[in-house]
Amino acid sequence: MPPSSLRVVYAFAREMHPKTTDVFIEYGTAGFRTKASLLEHVVYRMGLLAVIRSRVKNGRTIGIMITASHNLEPDNGVKLIDPEGEMLEQSWEEIATRLANVSDNDLEATTVEVIKQVNADMGLKASVFIGMDTRYTSPRLAAAAVHGVMALKGTAKEFGIVTTPILHYCVRCRNDNTYGTPTEEGKKYGPYSLVSTPGERGQLNLNCGADFVKVSQKPPVGVEHAPFQRVASLDGDGDRLVYYYLDDNNKMHLLDGDKIATLLASYVTQLLKACEATDLKLGLVQTAYANGASTKYITEDLKVPVSCVKTGVKHLHHAAQSYDIGVYFEANGHGTVLYSDKAKTTIRRIAQEGEPEQRKAAQLLLNFIDMTNETVGDAISDLFLVETVLCARGQNVKEWMEAYTDLPCRQLKVTVQDRNAISTADAERRCTAPEGLQSRIDELVATYKSGRSFVRPSGTEDVVRVYAEADTQENADKLAAQVSQAVFDLAGGVGDRPVA
Length: 500
Fold this sequence. Notes:
The protein is an alpha/beta fold. Helix content is 39%, strand content 17%. It has a 5-stranded mixed beta sheet with strand order 1-3-2-4-5, sandwiched between helices. Strand 2 and strand 3 (75-81) form a beta hairpin. Helix 2 crosses helix 5 and helix 15 runs antiparallel to helix 16.
């Protein structure tokens, strides 16, 4: 495609999706995410980038998902999905950020630069799948993505309103027909019913959903429960899952991503042992948000190796691929299980050639694999995996909870002038800037039994996130508040109070 034919890139931008803000928007942990009013020109340009990416991948399908996940309704976002259903290759995040922030006058020239930089053959066909969540701003943004695809003569297929995992799944299937059928129906979730409704005034994620339940440690507003009833909360785009129940004193007990990961890992370990598949290596991947008690249980009781990586599914997914069977979950409930080709081949062989008990266990494991959405964390698939394990073991939610006892924890958010003033190392467990903050955190942590705390700039909001755990809930709350004050004082807090 000669540069002269790229003039339509500028024409679409100028006439339909002009850049009307000077706010710098960065491709973060899960793509671009901010107020929906700032995103239209960004999404148009991601349509352009998706076509370029498809051509770099020899015409394989790329996905564009319009969603802000657990954020409140006024926000929105966009992220690109690579051919295997995984997150956009990390080296392209800088390209996405550059393309999103140039002026309309420079957009055509920058697009030409990007094409040359990545050596895209613009003569190839390009395929882009586009999905969106239920926000009222999503149809307009999806249309902008379609125009971006059209501007570079790609082919767009719109899926309308879908969960994020569905689009990841469809992209994977389109590029690998052995994985499944690239349709909503092809992802055979089976029957399920929606029990809880949206939050107050029907607004997405308002006082409900996986993130609300996890962070506030409260049940969704307006939902009634019987004591010890097992309840699952999903987030706004269907890629996070947490469980909880209320006891007979109406106290809430949370079973988050750590509890889900340990349940699934222990069951897979049990089946592998029954298969006698001793040459397959299973590992579990966590982030700094994982409760310290879970890590101890995994390593000491389950005897499963644990890797700790930076926050963000793209980091966990990559680390999980280093195992034959990799279980990864963020504490927020976003995760899945990955199975290598070696693992699948070995398990299939045992299911056909093993002794009777081995074959039985191997077949159960093959069914488990079929139920898993390996492309990305999928709350509905994960829900079925959890229910399968609980059913197989005859466990109720209380027995699941009693596998180990979480250390009490608290998460808070601090608004600062510039979240990027916070720098971290050691999988975000240590703070390297601003000067003096980590030493202050160490001093505070040392005053609490089983104390642990870390801070990190959010990848999805303009805040600094604070996590703390200790021997009692009162101490965890105090430690979190004190660390938040330290962040406020040393990292340029905004307003009169440190906690957002």
